[in-house]
Amino acid sequence: MKISYLQIAALSILLISCGNDNSNESGQSNFSRFGGNGSQQATSVETNEVEVGQIADQVRSFGNVKAQNEISVLPQVSNRITEIYVDLGDTVRQGEALAKIYDATFRDQLSQAESQLEQSRIALRRDSAEYQRQQSLMERDLTSESELDIAQAAYQSSRAQFESARSSLTQAQEDFNNTIVRSPVDGVITNRALEVGDLATTGTELFQIASTNGYESRIYLPVQDWRAVKVGQEVSLRISNESGISAEGVVSRKSPQLDATTGLGEVVITLTSVGNAVYPGVLAENVINITTKDRALIVPRSALVEQVETVINPESNTIELERSYSVFVSRGDSVAERRELELGIEQGDRIEVLSGLLPNDRIIVTGQSGLDDGARINVATGDQFQAPQERQIGGNANESGRQAPLANMNMTDEERAAAREKMQNMSREERMAYLRELRQQQADSTSNGQ
């Protein structure tokens, strides 16, 4: 004989109904014990008020702090280094001597250039006088045109040699002066490449100086964050080992394009105020405030209850996940009410609520997992909210708030403390059996005493 699905379903309902008619030892039905509204066990929860405060949509990225200007000091002449006057971390002023290069060769070149200049000056004076004399004689027809031309050519040659000698002296003087390497700016020595005795050559870095005019941080952002960042937005910087804000800054420049290799966009942040922990090269977290709301409703992320639904998109024939969020609100400290939320800005563990809550609502922040809309709750905090296995056993009150069983027994304080310690790691059934055993021992001792 074939049995239809309807017959099977009816038979199942009948069996369940019959099973629910069985009463437990105390005379209560299973339904009233576990599912009946009249005796539903209240869930202990912890509540907090909805926070009303400031929240900001932020972009976070790490970058190294560096001086706005970093200058490489290159020797202008090549020779051996004889003296170095500064070291790493030293603060220098513009024009201050940093190092000395062996200068004997350049001193000799300078002396030779000075001598050549003096010789050319004497020759220029002589030829200039002769040219003037020939001009005077020519005016009185006492000399020929050829003599005048010879005197003029000699004068012009002497003048050219004088200018060349003067230029050579200028170069020799410059080379000699460059044997002392000087700082081009005010700043701090951040790198020293050579030591005393090394050969300094033109084009090779000798020092690196970070200008003290200001600091900046350069960060590289993905396209979504890069698009949201605007010049002029405020930035807070925090050094990794600092608990608070270490520096303040502002977005001063932004690259107009993304890097073709990495797909990241560069953003330059100029520091406007710095603390003692900020120095060139330090790694800092840059927090850029995109949007700030002063009076927003804010809930902790841990209070949210997430619902995930699987949706099949018939057009693309794909499975998509739709997420929605809610919180439970304490109504009269006895009933949990589910509120569907529309969320806004997220800032760390704090999330803005756009709709679904009121400023005076008290949300359930602990114990909300597994609650249903309309479930009974018991708002508790501190020791009252501890789980049963974490509570002190054998104290003045038991889990249900009644007087503890040990308090009614004729025991000394030491015996009662020993019993409490023994029951710490017992299950509920083991504790009940142990208490029955203690009561029986008490009864036996009383009857023997009579």
UniProtKB/TrEMBL annotation:
Pfam families per UniProt: BSH_CzcB
Polar residues composition-biased segments: 390-401
GO MF entries: efflux transmembrane transporter activity
Record PROSITE patterns: PROKAR_LIPOPROTEIN
CzcB-like barrel-sandwich hybrid domain boundaries: 71-210
UniProt superkingdom: Bacteria
Gene3D superfamilies the record matches: 2.40.30.170, 2.40.420.20, 2.40.50.100, Helix hairpin bin
Gene Ontology terms: cellular component: efflux pump complex
Region feature (Disordered): 390-418
UniProt cross-references to InterPro entries, sorted A to Z: BSH_CzcB-like, RND_pump_MFP
PANTHER family named among the record's database cross-references: MULTIDRUG RESISTANCE PROTEIN MDTA
Family: Belongs to the membrane fusion protein (MFP) (TC 8.A.1) family.
Protein name, UniProt field: Efflux RND transporter periplasmic adaptor subunit
Organism: Gracilimonas sediminicola
Lineage: Bacteria, Pseudomonadati, Balneolota, Balneolia, Balneolales
